[in-house]
Amino acid sequence: QVQLVESGGGVVQPGGSLRLSCEASGSIARIMIMGWYRQAPGKQRDLVAHITSGGTINYHDSVKDRFTISRDNAKNTVYLQMNSLKPEDTAVYYCNARISPQRAFWGQGTQVTVSS
Predict the structure, then answer these.
(1) Torsions phi, psi of 81, nearest 5?
(2) What SS3 class is residue 74?
(3) Rounded distance, CA 52 to CA 35, Å?
(4) Which of 59, 66, 73, 102 has the fewest C-beta atoms under 10 angstroms from its C-beta?
């Protein structure tokens, strides 16, 4: 089992920045990939960015050059730095940890609202 606790969401004006954090606990040595997904009302949950245990990073095209995913292995924490936020970035952001192709764990989600 892997437990994930997210923090850092909130309300920000367009063009602003937020940093999300996701702290993992439990069977963290089994984690292959950690990532951030988001889900806006009435839409499917989409991948925002992920980082593999080997350090490979992938971003959704809509956030490239604005968002940065990173990790601190000593703190078992993954971060998502979000800059130049747009209203269309408004969503619930979920942390995800995958330990096999068939099994993944989710955090509880944190709301990000971009509005003037």
Answers:
(1) -85, 120
(2) helix
(3) 8
(4) 102
Q: For residue 96, count CB atoms less than 10 angstroms from its CB and return exposed for 0-12, middle for 13-18, buried for 19 or more.
A: buried
Retrieve residue 102's tokens. 């068939």
Between CA 7 and CA 111 the distance in angstroms is 9
Closest CA to 89 of 8, 15, 35: 15
Residue range 54-100, pLDDT digits in tens: 999 999 999 999 999 999 989 999 999 999 999 999 999 999 999 99
Residue type, 93: Y
- The span from the CA of 7 to the CA of 22, in Å, is 7
Q: Are 104 and 96 in contact (CB under 8 A)?
A: yes
φ, ψ of residue 16 in degrees (nearest 5): -80, -175
Asked whether 87 and 115 are in contact (CB, 8 A), the reply is yes
